[in-house]
Amino acid sequence: LAGTGDMERTFIAVKPDGVQRGLCGEIIKRLEQRGFHLVAAKFLQASEDHMKQHYLDLKDMPFYGGLCKYMSSGPVFAMVWEGQNIVKLVRMMLGETNPADSKPGSIRGDLCINIGRNIIHGSDTLENAKKEVGLWFKPEEFVNYTSCFQPYLYE
């Protein structure tokens, strides 16, 4: 199919606060409506060690320990989504890390208030997306299929 050679994958996780508030469906709905393609998902409670690996780039920040502890405190819904320019577009859909700086219409702008409870994680760069996808998913956990909508999404 023309125009689909530059597909990217990104890692998205609904954090414990988003899971507890019942927002997984709303988040999936928004990503599906945008036209993105779900290729892997799992519902789990990650260990603190796993979260330390995930947030390794933040290890020198004062909030690192608390963030890893919080992220392992309850279930998360981990997903891999695919689409053109998806890393950049999903970051725009999420809004700013601090919900108070997020525009209405973004996920954080519409659904949360506090930076420490900002409901969702999305990879910030293509390089980090590849690392995060590899940390959370094994190759055999992906479902590869062609969406019947693909010709209506991409030229």
UniProtKB/TrEMBL annotation:
It comes from the Eukaryota. It is an enzyme of class 2 (transferase). It is found in: Cell projection, Lamellipodium; Cell projection, Ruffle; Cytoplasm; Nucleus. Transmembrane segments: none annotated. GO terms for biological process: CTP biosynthetic process; GTP biosynthetic process; regulation of apoptotic process; UTP biosynthetic process. ATP binds at K15, F63, R91, T97, R108, N118. The keyword Transferase applies. The keyword Metal-binding applies. GO terms for molecular function: ATP binding; metal ion binding; nucleoside diphosphate kinase activity. Its cofactor is Mg(2+). Residues 7-144 form the Nucleoside diphosphate kinase-like domain. It holds the Pfam family NDK. The active site is at H121. GO terms for cellular component: cytoplasm; lamellipodium; nucleus; ruffle. Its EC number is 2.7.4.6. It catalyses: a ribonucleoside 5'-diphosphate + ATP = a ribonucleoside 5'-triphosphate + ADP; a 2'-deoxyribonucleoside 5'-diphosphate + ATP = a 2'-deoxyribonucleoside 5'-triphosphate + ADP. Keywords: ATP-binding, Cell cycle, Cell projection, Cytoplasm, Kinase, Magnesium, Metal-binding, Nucleotide-binding, Nucleus, Phosphoprotein, Transferase. PROSITE patterns: NDPK_LIKE. Its main location: other. Major role in the synthesis of nucleoside triphosphates other than ATP. PANTHER family: NUCLEOSIDE DIPHOSPHATE KINASE. Belongs to the NDK family. This is Nucleoside diphosphate kinase B. It comes from Oryzias latipes (Japanese rice fish).
